[in-house]
Design goal:
The protein is an alpha/beta fold. The chain contains 26 helices and 23 strands.
Length: about 700
Amino acid sequence: MAYGPGAGVLALRDVDLDVAPGTAVGLVGESGSGKSTLALAALRFLPGDGRVVRGRVELGGVALDGLSSAALRDLWRRRVRLVPQDPLASLNPSLTVGRQVAEGLAGDPAGRDGEGTAGASPRGDRARDAVRALLASVGLADAARVAASYPHQLSGGMQQRVAIAMALGGAPELLVMDEPTTNLDVTTEATVLDLVRDLRERHGTAVLYVSHSLAVVARTCDRVAVLYAGELVEDAPVAELYRRPLHPYTRGLLDSLPRVGQDRRAEPLRPIEGRIPEAHARPPGCVFADRCPVAIERCHAERPALDDAAPGRRVRCHRWPEIAAGTLDPRRPAEPPARAHDALAPDGDAPALSVRSLSKRYPLARGAWAALRRRPARAVRALEDASLEVWRGRTLGLVGESGSGKSTLARCVVGLTVPTAGEVALAGARLAPRLEHRYRARLGELQMVFQNSGEALNPYLTVGESLARPLRRLAGARSGGEIEARVRSLLEAVHLPAAFAARVPGELSGGEQQRVAIARALATEPCVLVFDESVSGLDVSVQAGILDLLTRLQDERHGAYAFISHDLAVVAYLADDIAVMHLGRVVESGPASAVLRPPYHPYTEALLSAVPTLDPDGQAERVRLTGDAPSPVDLPPGCPFHTRCPRSLGELCEREAPPWRRDASGKTVACHIPLEELVTAQVPLFADAGDAGAGPAAEGAAP
């Protein structure tokens, strides 16, 4: 049991957990449930105002409670490793990445190749090669450049991969991973999970995997421990828990996750209503009683015990015997489906948003020697001839790995980045490339919701002031009464009480902040909303509420959404159309149900095969990408994907740009392989992604 921040606040209560050598235990629950506190307590790495007041932590039979500071440092160096949630805060800003990774290798008794003495660090060329191999193993292209870089010179996803490489380098006895893949795309995430599995099998490493992604835990772990408000409420083998959860909270978490092929209007998600109680205000009975759909009077008055429901399975619930017997359904009643919506018919004669041949290049500075020799200037090709359309009443999902150009495209669309070539049109009218050159009326018709709502909202303005600003500047509202009424209406639209207008962002949860950001974007009644990773950092229950909110708002207002995410399950749930991007290019696009079934572009096939599902026994066979990802500075000739493509045709793909091929569903694929051959070679990855539909019909069509 641990004390959290502040005096006398119990962050954890009576948590018992075992992680056997060579196994992985997933720790799941909402933010504030105590997952990270438990992980840090297990490492004896609690902050200064946190301490263990009862119970003990053992590693290999040795109690950690009485170890000195020197002994703990040696333990952290040699036997345990932590992958933190915030990589930038854990990396030394004054040291290069390569030097920091090399320091991590010092804890490997075998020097990673079975040679050397205990604790010996590889040195010289051997150290450099080991560091580069580790960085490459977590999907970092151009490992030499990354090793020579400082942390601030890398993106957030690259920083996370560096932190993972540092942890994997020492072959530890215990590996604690705190939300390690939240900001990674699915292919990199799958690669990292493969590395963790290999570490377990080769070295018998025990893994404590903290995550809010139940699908990742299903793919990675042997057991799952569910925490809520600092208490262990369910603990079971992964297959048993996912097949038949016995606690209503576990059932609620599973019902909050979208499935690929799930119809968002006919079968909306079931988010958990309410909020997790504060550590200083836990109820006297069951901590979940106030949010539980099947709570009875006993649940509010008496705290349940942690019962042995079956061998190797524990649950803390008064009503678990009824749930296990099948006489009680712990699921929250489903919301009525949204109004009928014809998602197959675009609305209007012209798309709400069209992007035509958009390109963006970032020139690189030439050195003096290159300039004297008159070498041509080099540039990062962030976008290359990208085209797409978004129609009113529909959602376009943009997917692809990190560095594929999704966010660059979004910034070019809203005018935050000036494209090198191409154009953006809103309802058929061309937009000026620069934001400051666009008419004020146009600014209100195109709005963006950013990934980090906490940074996007001014911390010194109240919610009401943040919402009033666009109403006054872009929507033409003048009188105080009109603005106040419209602020209340906006808060009501995103299901927040009017009293929130007086609060500042710091007084809101992450999900509430994101709802305020959406309300601010809706203030000008835009015809197009762009969402850039807007739900990626949210708890699954909060995410479910936001996704269903977006669906209802779109049905009510008939707006067009461009939704960017690295979570393909979320995109598949929300999107009517999907565009797949690779190295700045759109390589496949079409109706969502068509993109989710063969024929796939080989890159799309690899992305979809890496999507973890909630069925531990039904994970798709992964299409593993080998070879190095090309640098956006030096793209290869021919198809840019041919260096990693498992279906490459050799010289043809290496020499010539791929043609566009179109099938009867309207899906377009940029690939040399005929669609008929792709259909024959590929298997459906998701059985419920849509009807089989018509086969290939026409080729050579423009996207």
